[in-house]
Amino acid sequence: MSSNRSASPGRGWRIDGWVILTLVLLLLVLSPVVWLLMMSLKTEIDALAMPPKLVFVPTLENYIGLLEARFLRPLINSVVVAVTTTLLSLGLGVPAAYVLSRARTWAVGGIAFWILTTRMAPPIAFGIPFFLAYRDLGWLDTLGGLILIYLTFNLSLVVWMMRTFFDAIPLSLEEAAYMDGASTWQAFRAVVLPLVGPGTAATAILCFLLAWNDFFYALVLTRSNAMTAPVAIVNFMNYAGWDWGRITAGSIIVALPVVAFSVPVRRYLISGLTAGAVKG
Question: Domain 62-274 adopts which CATH fold?
Answer without folding.
Answer: MetI-like fold (1.10.3720)
